[in-house]
Amino acid sequence: MSFLSKLRRPMLLCLILLTSVAMLSADDWPTWRGPHRDGTSDEKNWNARWPNDGPKIAWRTNIGVGFSAVVVAGERVFAMGYKDAEEKDQLGTETLYCFRADDGHEIWKVSYLARTDKNLNVGGPASTPSVFENRIYTLSRDGQFRCIDIENGSVVWEKTLKELIGQEMSGWGTSSSGVIWDDKIVYQVGGTIALERATGKLAWQTPAHKVGYSTPTIFTHDGRQLAVSLSGDGVVLVDLQTGKELDFYAWKADYDIHAATPIITAAGRIFASSGYGHGCILFEVQNDKLVPVVGSAITPLTTMGNSMSGCVFYRDCLFGFNRDNLSCVDANTLQTIWTHSSRELNGKGGVMLADGKLILITGSGTLAVVEANPKEFQRLAAFKLLGKNCWTMPTLAGGRIFCRNDQGELVAVDVRN
């Protein structure tokens, strides 16, 4: 082997490593609530001030009904939707799509038969896929788990809730997004379960509760990795290493719906919120118990009631939709700092944070940018993007904002500087 060939091999290895790192860049949004799983993006080079008719639309497509959010890895965009069968009483088709980020060209798709539930909504997938390394993990509305190769769309493994824990589809189905932890992926399906990422085998499960629609939040407490999530009847605290349920705090929701993801504040407290006739509670973990320190199940504060995608935490404040109105509350007291009510920015929508700004879409389809100002409401830009219902939080990745509505309209908005 020549000296030049010997030199080329380590250079090639470095190039491969650098390419792999670049694929996991700050511009990615690989899972529910983004790269940090807290609704925030590290992206800064994007345009937050738009003309009245909005920025350029990069591309549009239709993916079928549902509420699953968009995830992005490198130059690939992943989204899920559902389409009815042509004949009544037949199973419809749920599909995971892989698109090219710049122009929306379909690279591959994976479709499978699935049941849905149209009770008070259009049905379709509500769980958001999770990308890790060269795999993407999905959960259908009726409890089908899949691991798929992101390069070619081949299915690596597939399991069902019934097969894993004997549980049938109930309520409004399943909507928890998978949370990658170590060599496992964790879901809230009433109880909390962990699957082995490599095989889909059940690693552990906690006692069953009423099915909720929340996604677990992972955090460190006293040197241990814990997960907190909302079931349909309360708040669940789990030790991830052992799979043991440490505590369950009973908090019944109207219609058994607790949909928002819990948030960990800078003080290490747990913020939990529910928009269905309830409000919010702030917890501390004390001796493996969930101890309410602001509000309680009997007297939750009504200052922030998240119906859908939840709040974002920034500068000791929580920003989100308190039912229909965009609001800011103090993260230590849960007292209202400001609330904004207008026809333009009204409705149960979704919100994320990037570079000190809120990117939000209202339930009726207005996309807007608002300063994440803990003192006052400051609108920067807004325009009508989609028809209702838009209950899914927007995604920012690579200078593009991706939004969808329940009818399956998926839009990529170009906000690159």
Q: Can you walk through the features of this model?
A:
This protein is mostly beta strands and 417 residues long. It has a single domain (25-414), classed as YVTN repeat-like/Quinoprotein amine dehydrogenase (Methylamine Dehydrogenase, Chain H, 7 Propeller), CATH 2.130.10.10. Helices cover 6% and strands 43% of the residues. It has 2 helices and 33 strands. It has helices at 3-23, 161-165, and strands spanning 40-41, 56-62, 71-73, 76-83, 92-100, 106-114, 130-132, 135-139, 144-149, 155-160, 179-181, 184-189, 191-196, 202-205, 217-221, 224-231, 234-239, 244-250, 263-264, 270-273, 280-286, 289-294, 312-314, 317-322, 325-330, 336-340, 350-354, 357-361, 366-371, 379-384, 395-397, 400-404, 409-414. The strands form 8 sheets. The chain has a 5-stranded mixed beta sheet, with no helix packed on it. A 4-stranded antiparallel beta sheet has the order 2-33-32-31, with no helix packed on it. The radius of gyration is 21 Å and the shape is globular. The model is unreliable at 1-23 (pLDDT under 50).
